[in-house]
Amino acid sequence: MNQLMKLFALLVFVSFTTTSYAQSIGPKLGVNIASWTGDDALDDYSSITGLQFGAVVELPVSDKFAIQPELVYLRKGSSFDIDFLGTTIGTETQLNYFEIPILAKIFLTEGPAQVFINAGPSIGFATSGTIAAKSGDEEEEVDIDFNEDGLSNFDFSLAVGAGAQFNAGPGKFFVDVRYLLGLANLDDSEPEADRIDVFNRGIGASVGFLFPLGQ
Question: Which residues is 171 bridged to in the sheet?
Fold first, then answer.
């Protein structure tokens, strides 16, 4: 987590010192509908819904293009059923991530209402997680130990989205929708030959407000 914070601060500092356009910063809040995809043997993953929130920095390079680094907390994971000796056990895995998306933001319109598209890499680090199992009236939840459970706490994704922002008082109100395509295998078990492919997927929607930082 400390490394992510340092990376985010470095990106913002470098961007501030290399653009003459007015920068903006502000909070965002939304939801993330997450699931996993992977090998055919475990392809019945269902989605879970979790909160996401964080900070956004908009760093314009021109009137139509900006770099947008973010520091975001979001929940990923999946749910699926396991048949054990004729009994169906419902399981849900929740992973809590801090992420830094670094997005290229292209404005498609001008004026008080701007439509945009964005895309870029997202680096994530899971700080904690739980696995819950339920069968009938019995339910149990355990904390994830990433090393012992053979689960990677690192994630690397491609984020692609679109949205709009509107002039509002001193700043800009924005909404955006984003698809997150995980590219890093979450299975970190040993031996390596026994690993299966498990990747994060997610669709997120958020709202936020950008406050200007001046010229």
Answer: 168
Q: Enumerate residues 6+ apart whose C-beta is below 8 A from 59.
A: 12, 15, 16, 19, 21, 23, 66, 67, 68, 69
Q: Per-residue pLDDT for 182 more than 70?
A: yes
Taken in order of first residue, the domains within the chain and their CATH numbers are 2-18+26-212 (2.40.160)
Supply φ then ψ for residue 2, to 5 degrees: -60, -40
Question: Is the pLDDT at 13 greater than 70, yes or no?
Answer: no
The 10s digit of each residue's pLDDT in 153-162 is: 999 999 999 9
Beta-strand ranges (E) seen in the chain are 24-38, 48-60, 65-84, 87-107, 113-135, 138-143, 154-168, 171-182, 198-212
**12 with 73: CB under 8 angstroms?**
no
